[in-house]
Design goal:
The structure holds two protein chains of two kinds. By secondary structure, chain A is mostly helical. Chain A is 55% helix and 0% strand. Chain B has helices spanning 20-48, 61-92, 100-120, 136-158, 167-186, 203-221, 224-238, 245-259, 274-286, 288-300, 306-309, 313-335, 338-344, 348-378, 385-418, 431-437, 439-467; strands at 189-191, 197-199. In chain B, helix 12 (313-335) runs antiparallel to helix 14 (348-378). Classes of the chains: A mainly alpha, B mainly alpha.
């Protein structure tokens, strides 16, 4: 074992004094962390490239749907990020801008695509398609490897629980107008009722507080704001 | 295959040391290894054959996959680290652990956290951040238990009977400190209810914090503590001193400084600012150097002992582990290059890469260490030395099948997603068509993973029978450490 001058220095300064070693290690790991994270925190707390007025916060029903999406681990097979590449734009639509994620807590970009990306799935299929797809994925996508989620059809969302979630998001800065239980219940009922009415014209009976309704509401709004904004920009000949 | 001759394991004197806590962590490691790998095999089956999701909420892939990752990372690998740390640091510092009660609170607290994870994750209670899924009350418990561990760890260092800290201790220290920083920063949330919370970060900031955490969980939970274990157990098993002290200094400091920057390579081609993506990519590539420094220091420690590698399964496990470490730390930087990442991202290639690190490096290093340790701390020769050799071959061939299947699947899907016709349209417009072409590879992966689990089951039986085996060998004092 070589014991050079260099080694002697290391022994004397670091290996004899554990506290010095611990502080030096902490400094070593802090530099990269601070350089990468602090600018993001600053960008997050001001009007910046991470913000865009064209994106609206998730409604209470969509918050409930998003919670179901995370509960079932949908993000483990479906990403939410269209990359700026020709094949991705052809397959999914406009690539994803930072501002489109501004109300995403937690982020759900995903790390794997066993199924297709869902960033632009909103409005791609009718509500009835999502209903059938969750009940039996192979009824809408023959050969699909996705498991069925029949419990979403009959399990109910909890209004008080969702109200707590919305208020937690409000405390974090999401702009909501009216977050008392009654207002949220009203919002859930009216948005859910709209989806139920649409489904009934497709011959499907559902209730506004079925979990499938909340999940459908979430899926149908995915990427919607961004797409509308970006398509409008494109028509104006803008690139960004 | 040459004959198996396990080298007689030195039987250290335990007087004054707390070996009870080591045995507790060792036993927990074996149990959680089997659980974690079994869940892995189950979810591999689910991907190849969807009816294995069983139609129940608690058994779908989306809920079991976090159970698998948490079980293998925090239950199996975590308990391996604690086993090795509690064993080697007492000997390296020539002192008993600082406080036996803290050791036991650490042990039972950690096992309780694992059990609560095993209950909450199938119930769908998750924060959804990969390797940080556990709900906020469990996160609080992790913080408390970690602080208790840190007090015990630094208390032991403070009362050490040797002047210098051996290289293993450096790596353990980076593990204890960095995991605390990572866990707390990534777990800051606003609780909505006892079971649900929302992160204080939003959107891409949340994504960056998570992947800064996620990549460094690989770095400081699955790499630095295992390098520490390598620096103690490889020289002991090979009965050779560490090749280069100077190399260990350079690669330690370079590794801990560089690793922390690499997270953004998980977000290439996202809307994260270009500078952050580029910094993540560049540091990931530079990380190759200290990673290979560690690999070379491990492999060169075996100089003069290669004849024994042919016959001793413990050294075989360790050599393959260090080789997989070198391979996956080459593959990782390559996958961090934007152009390569554009093909590899979101494909099975990433899964293959993770498993060459997890099964190859972490798993094989753990097995080698444990085959050595079971004889050393229970003071009995291994009951079935040939089984250890069979385990080695099952595991090695299993990993090779696994990673080749995932490479092939990943390359195929990556190329087919992006393939365009001459007219500039998608060559495979139906996404599902591509997923269905993966099926043969997913079955092949299942075979590889099952072989790996089979080897681990053999190991568990072997350990059980060894511990229940004949009378202990009398202890003889042995020089401590390789430094």
């Amino acid at each position: 074992m070589s014991d050079t001058k260099y080694g002697q220095f290391h022994r004397r300064v670091f290996e004899r004094k554990a506290a010095v070693f611990a502080v030096a290690t902490t400094v070593a790991i802090s530099i990269g962390a601070l350089v990468e994270l602090v600018p993001m925190f600053m960008a997050d707390s001001s009007l910046s490239w991470q913000r865009g007025a064209y994106v609206t916060p998730y409604t209470p029903l969509e918050v409930a749907g998003r919670d179901i999406y995370t509960r079932e681990g949908c993000y483990l097979c479906h990403s939410q990020m269209v990359r700026p590449m020709r094949a991705e734009i052809l397959r999914y639509g406009p690539w994803t801008r930072a501002a489109e994620y501004q109300y995403d807590r937690p982020f759900l970009l995903g790390s794997r695509r066993l199924g297709p990306d869902l960033q632009r799935v909103g409005q791609k299929y009718p509500d009835a398609w999502h209903y059938e797809h969750m009940r039996d994925p192979r009824s809408t996508s023959p050969g699909s490897v996705m498991p069925p989620y029949p419990w979403l059809i009959h399990d109910k969302i909890d209004v008080v629980d969702i109200a707590k979630s919305v208020r937690a998001l409000e405390r974090l800065g999401t702009p909501y107008v009216g977050t008392d239980n009654a207002t949220i219940a009203g919002s859930l009922q009216s948005q859910g009722g709209g989806i139920v009415a649409g489904l009934s014209s497709a011959g499907i009976t559902a209730e506004w507080d079925d979990e499938i309704i909340a999940l459908t509401a979430y899926l149908q709004r995915l990427g919607r704001d961004g797409r509308a904004y970006l398509e409008q920009l494109e028509q104006q000949g803008g690139n960004q | 295959m040459s004959q198996t001759t396990t080298n007689p394991i030195p039987v250290d004197s335990d007087s004054g040391y707390d070996m009870g806590i080591v045995k507790m962590f060792f036993t927990a490691t074996v149990v959680w290894a089997l659980v974690g790998m079994l869940v892995g095999v189950i979810i591999a089956l689910q991907l190849a054959w969807w009816p294995a999701n069983l139609g129940l909420p608690w058994t779908t892939f989306g809920r079991l996959r976090p159970l698998h990752t948490n079980a293998v990372v925090f239950a199996f690998a975590g308990n391996v680290c604690f086993t090795g740390i509690y064993h080697s640091m007492q000997r390296l510092l020539k002192t008993r652990m600082f406080n036996d009660t803290l050791s036991r609170i650490h042990f039972w607290g950690w096992q309780l956290i694992i059990v609560s994870a095993a209950i909450t994750l199938p119930l769908g209670l998750t924060q959804s951040k990969e390797y940080a899924e556990l709900i906020w009350p469990i996160d609080v418990a992790i913080t408390i238990v970690w602080v208790i561990f840190a007090i015990n760890f630094f208390g032991t260092i403070a009362q050490r009977k040797v002047e210098h800290l051996y290289v293993s201790i450096w790596f353990y220290m980076s593990f204890v400190l960095t995991i605390a920083v990572l866990h707390i920063t990534n777990s800051l949330v606003m609780p909505a209810t006892f079971l649900r919370s929302y992160p204080i970060y939003a959107g891409l900031t949340d994504a960056l914090v998570q992947w800064w955490y996620g990549h460094n969980a690989v770095g400081f939970f699955l790499t630095t503590p295992f390098l520490g274990l390598m620096y103690y157990y490889l020289p002991r098993a090979a009965e050779r001193p560490v090749y280069s002290y100077r190399l260990s200094i350079i690669h330690f400091w370079a590794l801990v400084f560089l690793y922390i920057w690499a997270g953004p390579h998980h977000l290439l081609y996202s809307a994260l600012p270009d500078w952050a993506q580029t910094v993540g990519m560049v540091f990931s590539i530079v990380l190759l150097a200290p990673s290979w420094g560690g690999m070379l220091n491990g492999l060169l420690t075996l100089r003069g002992a290669w004849d024994r590698v042919r016959t001793d399964p413990i050294l075989k496990f360790m050599v393959v582990a260090v080789s997989f470490y070198g391979m996956s730390t080459f593959e990782g930087p390559m996958m961090s290059i934007r152009a390569v990442n554009s093909l590899a991202h979101y494909t099975n290639w990433v899964i293959g890469h993770v498993h060459s690190g997890a099964l190859g490096w972490v798993g094989m290093m753990s097995f080698g260490m444990m085959y050595w340790m079971v004889q050393n701390i229970w003071k009995r020769p291994l009951k079935h030395p040939t089984w250890a050799s069979h385990h080695f071959w099952l595991a090695t061939i299993g990993i090779v099948i696994y990673t080749i299947a995932m490479w092939a699947a990943g390359l195929m899907e990556g190329l087919q997603w992006r393939a365009l016709t001459d007219a500039g349209q998608l060559a495979n417009p139906i996404f599902l068509d591509i997923t269905l072409r993966l099926q043969p590879f997913l079955w092949l992966r299942l075979i590889g993973g099952t072989m790996y689990l089979g080897g681990a089951i053999m190991m568990a039986i072997n350990f059980w029978q060894t511990i229940r085996g004949p009378e202990p060998i009398a202890a003889e004092p042995v020089a401590v450490g390789a430094d």
